[in-house]
Hints:
There is one protein chain. By secondary structure, the chain is α/β, with parallel strands linked by helices. The chain has ten helices and eight strands. The protein has helices spanning 26-32, 35-41, 62-82, 97-111, 141-145, 178-186, 194-200, 203-215, 247-260, 280-292, and strands spanning 6-12, 45-51, 86-91, 115-120, 168-173, 190-193, 219-225, 263-269. Strands 2-1-3-8-7-4-5-6 form an eight-stranded parallel sheet, sandwiched between helices. The chain is globular.
Amino acid sequence: MDGPERIAILGAPTEVGTSEPGSVMGPAALRTAGLVRTLRDLGHAVADHGDAVPDGPADAVGRPAVAAWTRVLARQVEAALDAGDLPVVVGGDHSLSLGTVEGAMRHCARTGRPLFVLWLDAHADFNTPETSPSGNLHGMPLAALCGEPGLSDLFADPDRPALDPTRVHLFGLRSIDAGERALVAARNVEVTDMRHIDEFGVVAPLRRSLERVAEASGHLHVSFDIDFLDPGLAPAVGTTVPGGATFREAHLIMEMLHDSGLVGSLDVVELNPFLDERGRSACVLVELVASLFGRRILDRPTPPIAAVPAPATRG
């Protein structure tokens, strides 16, 4: 990202992939917290395309509802990328990434670029219907995208090419079910868990990952789940896991992503305003997205209590 971007904001107010109500309000909360204004203030050309409307009956539930969202979001992300825009999809539960990553895959297949996915999340989201303890589809998008059996009906084309699991990087992992642990290992998915981050920090593993994308001239899709952050920083999530990324770690990751110039598409998911504290989590997410799009420390508004007092004038 060497200069201003053309950013397409796409809302995905969905909670059909989870049993916890509230994430349907996520896009509205992020807009209220100033997402569009903040990105425009950074000099980007931002078009807010409003909220997507899923294909099919409005009262659809379960797998048909997730499939309907997958179809519409895949089309919208693919169209935005084809138009030269950088799509930022705000949700909404993590099942929406079935559509956003699928749209990026279609675009990359046509342009001849490999797609890499950076999954900033406390969870692996690599469950299948056979391994999932809950059966919630927001815990299965990566498994579905990578072609694991039992999930092909979620896509418009059941015979679609699968995402290469060796080009997926699970970053910030700290909760994984036994069945998906075995799948992640068998498929050679790259994993940087919080134990690794505690020992070595975020810079080295992220830098290696970004270098790999750059060497392949790849398109990097970033899927940012709010539960990547420590719940003390951002409590508005239905699947809290203690010990997540700190405020500074998260900003450093976003700053590195910006400096790399490799991010071609972005999801911000699982914000549940019903569980928030006076909009705190939404504001944190807007600040982090701003860092990804170029805001630096000196660009951030300084709270009045921390402002440097004006020098005294001489009479």
